[in-house]
Prior knowledge:
With 221 residues, the chain is of the alpha/beta class. The chain contains 6 helices and 9 strands; from the N terminus they run ααβαβαββαβββαββ. Strand 2 (67-71), helix 4 and strand 3 (88-91) form a beta-alpha-beta unit. Helix 1 runs parallel beside helix 4.
Amino acid sequence: MSLDATRATYDTVAEDYARLVTGLDAEGPLDRAMLADFADRVDGPVADVGCGTGRMSAYLSGLGIDVVGIDLSPGMIAVARETYPSLRFEVGSMTALDLPDGGVAGVLAWYSIIHTPPEGLPEVVAELRRVLVPGGHLLLGFQAGADEHRSLTHAYGHDVQCDAWLHSPDTVAALIEAAGFTVDARLVREPTGRERRPQASLLASLPADDRGDRTRGGAVT
């Protein structure tokens, strides 16, 4: 995975992304139900990892949740800070989050792993697990497929160059279960509106007595 290419892509499209994708307009009723269930379950601060221009952070904040938005793209974070000045946003990578071990009660990674190749997912899952408290909750949203690679050359009115992957829901579920999570809910739905591919989301939790290995970026044993 080229972090530089991903960062450059989102720096380029940030302002037009914010103009074209607002609120929960891109989410259907099933997606909204998963997001609402996640918000009901968390009891404490939440990290919105891959927050983009902050629309999901704003949604969670509107529900009274203490949230920090984190994104690889400084351009996206600049737009998020301008749009939602009362919220906290930081530049960061999902493989090395600037959060303490067990620092948050929930992690939302809503379409944040689509630029991570299958072989990179274990490192991401390990990092998300590291920052969660025992009993914490994780919600992943992603485009569903058979671990298929795509090259993005145009997005939100701009020419770009970026890799993307469709992930198998079964593969992602197995990875997070191997990391010590329990999958509490799984959604795979057919595309609607402008979508061209099935969409998936997985809601998972850590056991309340979790004492697993929380080494940054390492394999979970």
